[in-house]
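Escalation from tier 1.

The customer reports that the assembly of two entities below gives different structure tokens on two consecutive runs. Tier 1 could not reproduce it. I'm attaching the input and our single run for tier 2 to review.
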Amino acid sequence: MIETKLGDFEEVILLLVGILGTEAYAFKIAEEFETQTERSVSIGAVHSTLTRLGDKGFLESKMGDASAERGGRRKRIYEITASGKRALENSRDFKVSLWNQFPAFANKLNFNI
Amino acid sequence: MNNNKKSIPPRLAQRLLEWFIKDELAEEVLGDLDEKYFYSIKNKSTTRAKLNYWYQVFNYLRPFALKNYRSNSNNLSMFNNYFKISYRNLLKYRSFSAINILGLSLGFTCSLLIFVWVQDEVAMDKFHNNLDRIYSITSREYTGHELTYTGYDTPGLLGEELKKVFPEVEHASNISWKEWHNFSARNNEKIIVGGFYAAEDFFKIFSYPLILGSRENILNEPESIVISRKMADALFGGPEHAIGELIKLENYDELKVTGVFEDHQSDVSEKFDYIINWRFFTQRNEWIEDWHNSGPNTYIMLAENTVAEELRPKIKEFIAKYDAKYTEANHMELDLQPYANRYLYSKFENGKVAGGRIELVSLFGLVALFILVIASINFMNLSTARSMRRAKEIGVRKVNGAKRISLIYQFLFEACIISSIAAIISLLLIGLLLPYFNLLTGKQLDLPINSWSFWMMIIASNLIVGLLAGSYPAFLLSSFKPISILRQTVKNSTYSVVLRKGLVVFQFGLSTVFIAGMFTISEQMKFVQSKDLGYQKDHLLYIPLNGAVAKNFETFKNKSMELPGVESMSQTSSHLIHLENTTSNVKWAGKDPDAKPVFVVSSIGYEFSETLRTNIVMGRDFSRDFNDSTNYIINESALKVFGFKDPIGKSINMWGREGQIVGVVKDFHYNSLHVPIEPIILSFKRGNRGGWGIVRVDPNQTIAAVNNLEKVYKEMNPEFTFNYHFYEDEIGLLYSGEEVVKKLAGYFAFLAIFISCLGLLGLVMFTIEQRTKEVGIRKVLGARVSQIATLLTKDFVKLVFLSILISFPIAYLLSENWLQGFEYHIELKWWFFAISGAASLVIAIATVSIQAIRASFINPADTIRSE
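Tier 1 run:
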């Protein structure tokens, strides 16, 4: 059975795929991750997560264009699927509901969603 | 980013990635990594980018990206299968596996420990930067045309002169013998340490690391002293406070600290805590400034691009020019020895290097090898013996289409797995045993996990053992035709049986040699310890004399004698168990004018033989009742040289001083039993500096005696540290090397016989298993237990007996050879060998018969009911 829950790292990667749009391939995602979180990550780790997300049905991919700095090799572009979007929304809603139950913050926070 | 052609991603990393990554992922991943690489170059450096590339490649070692070998690669799945089969076989034949692994890991442990030790020995004194240019001068002394001495003693003027005469000699330094002295600083801190006197060039020749001071001028003044960190810490509280400070030597001479060197590591063979300028030494020992006298050692460092072989003939007769007493009959020749060889090759015979410590090192190396061989033989024997059991498996595999080569791989792989397990266990064992091994050998050995040669050694020995042991079943069994295997017409070939028997004989032969060797060594050590040395060594202690105690020895003596515990006291000029000064300058009436006999010389005080409890054969001790200051006491060997019938009152002339012989003392051992007792002339000790006090203490009040001596000593010599040693301990040190060998020999002998017995046990178990039906039928037909046990045991006992017979002559030769190193040694007795042989035989019979008896008790109904 394939696990359909989202892990923390998976969630971030999934979001980054959405942010990067047509530029969402492993190297770019890793770079974006490093700039956004200021944590280092290897391309392999990102790639592994992308594959796992693909297995869960949250992402689909196709081969994109080649370029000179890639030594003429094509890249694999990832795209969020509908169930991927749903998983992200569920995850967000779940967290928001948790935040709302947290008495210290429940009424002061404004999520603007 | 193609403008920089040179910077391409590391090729090797790329290959590695291509090798392990799934084919369908290769393109995108390589592309991503390229992009990352050029991105890094732009932002960081090329090196960082390359490193990062490697990092990224290793980060692709994740399950999702790896090629799926199970499905894709036939080779790998075969290896999986080999692994599985090996694992199953290990578990199925638990006792055989245990015997194999236990034996092998003991063998590995033992030989790796010795390997570490040998490596340490070989690395000794090898850290000097210019090692290949440093040479020791050796000398050959001819007296009356005969070679009487070969060694390192050279004239004290040699170093400086060699440097002056030969441009090839870049640096040269004389070095004194090691001297222990009291040093004190102005703040009254005191320390007793040992060290040398050496010329200015000492630190230019040798690269002992300096903390303070420059190599160029560190020893330039006659009062210069360079001290160790330890000594600087003790006297000044740290090297930085030591420079320029004054140190008093024996509370008398003042020396100035001009440098501090780092404390020695374990790779320094002759450790020292100070070096004092050579001139300081010669000013106080004028005899050194005579070309005819020798004693100091000399080291030179050749200039670059100089060939030592060309210098050698030039220095051979170098001394002829300088020594006024040089004659064809009595002279000294010089030679060179590379300093790198000095530690291991320091024994000379007939003027040539004849080994030294290297003998011990190679002996141990050989023993390590043999123990490993014994362990591997077990492995080999058990796998050949059991290989027939695997014959059916091979038949089935062949019928199913296995190629011969893959069967060979399978057996080799299995053997290598077993030896690898043994290697891992032995590494753990070594970790546990190393502290004890260090205690035994007196070294500071670590597991050299950083040294690639250590790992190479492990992997190599592992592979060799695995391949050798696996080779027989691998090559022989895989050659059988499946039809004959499956019809069971293949029998264990006679060749393999003979091989197996031969190996057992070899194993037990070696073990018996080890046992006999151990026997000889421990008997000789017993002899060494119990031999009458010519004086009573127990409850005898010595005190280095210095300051007021040396000056007024009689006062010290009288004061101490009043206190309880001190029985008698005397003094000598040189250390009694290292009498090393010799002379041939002795004349007497009736001496053969051509002969130049050499005498050991020393000087002694009153009550010498009373304190030592030596026997005076004729005459008397030196006595206050006579004026003995120019008289002599000789030993029996010297009497033989003189040839006097009635020696007492006869005049002899030593160094131009005429005196009478007043006593003849029984020969006593003044050195280890390795060397013969030479003729000795003892004169009366006049000097009031240095020397040794000898004290005989009451056995029941040893502690009181030592305390009282210390009290008197401190009273007279407040600025010195009281120091004493027991002769017994000092004599023990003479044989410390042999003591280590004795202990190790014991362990080796035990290991060898233990591992051999393990092998034998395995073979017996195997034979019995094969013959269970035969045993059953015999029992049914009425054979008694004893008959069956004998039947099963007989063959093995025969083998062991044969091996013992073969081992005797070898053990005899080796033991005899070892004993020749002692001038005084035991005679080899036949029963040494008889006992060692009997020991091997009994152990072997015990191993075999327990199994045999157990087998003969089995109910025949259990063994012959099937088939």
